[in-house]
Please model this.
Amino acid sequence: MNREDYIKEAVAQFETILREQSARAEKMKNAPPATDFAKLDKIIIGCCGGDGIGPIITAEARRVLEFLLKDAIASGRIELRDIEGLTIENRIACGKAIPDDVLAALKECNVILKGPTTTPKGGTGAKELESANVAMRRELDLFANIRPVSVPEQGIDWTFFRENTEGEYVLGSRGVEIPDELCCDFKVTTDAGTERICRAAYDFAVKNGKTRVACVTKANIMKKTDGKFSRIAHAIADAEYPSLTVEDWYIDIMTAKLVDERGRADFQVFLLPNLYGDIITDEAAQIQGGVGTAGSSNAGSHYAMFEAIHGSAPRMIERGDGAYANPASMLRATEMLLRHIGYIAEANKLSRALDICTAPDAELKITGRSDGASCSEFGDWLMSICETL
Ligand code: IPM
Ligand code: MG
Model:
């Protein structure tokens, strides 16, 4: 193909993309009301282990769920269902980010507990394989990525609301290229997609007595997409949430402000487009003690998926240290899952037990190596603490 052919092909692809995204925006506008978990006779929790340390830490979180929910499981209100096949080997073999049978099984659940999954970077023979996380967020329309970070001794109590289905991610595997000359990726921001993440963040703020929301963009440079995000964030707050103050911040200065100890504890709720939310939540988790300490909720109107914010740690597996992986982030995600489906007392119990078991002076330490506690020893200890609460 010559340059002209590439340009023609790219223009045709752009038209397809615009039409698809416009149809998606239209669908969002006509979305049915959200599922009320309290009204469901039965809640199915799907558990998928993922790759690397994923199956190890997910099995531990599943054990804790089984322990905390034993009555509800016995009565049939809750079912824990194992979902196999979301492994990198199977995904490469099927050539799909999520194999069809796995996706069908996921859609039969209400909520999902998911271990980290590996995404090939290219050069592996599977370079076009989309991230399983990104595909799941899109397929189940999990638009709100909610990431709490807290450092009580410093007064830090932050909650990040990262838009999870748009921005640079939605078309991240569908850019266009003129070989040896240029590449172009797409970033998408819709009105309906922005409105729903704003309302999710603002509802949370109001319910939890927060008054400040930082809307973090780069609207001085990304004028269309981030400009829209910021404009809608203000319009909704002004019209519907009079108790909230929404402040504009640019992502670059916000990354600096988070490491500035004088004043960072004043931030409460953060509202961000997808990519900025991805980056800044790793930074925030590091302030809390590392990405291994943070859980994350990917919530939509009908499904929700809960996961650690870190990856599958293949190096730990290569070293033979998988059994010593720290399940704390998966357990934080488990706490969010329990809260999401209305098991608040169980979530509070798990939260308190985790605070005790991960305190700096805790008697049992996980180091990620055989000189520390194993993942299952940690789980046993955590459950024995739960018994005392
Ligand atoms: C996260 C991760 C994912 C993301 C990766 C694994 C695709 O970094 O959940 O933050 O970029 O969203
Ligand atoms: Mg990330």
Observations:
- The chain has a mean pLDDT of 95.
- The CA atoms of residues 83 and 324 lie 24 Å apart.
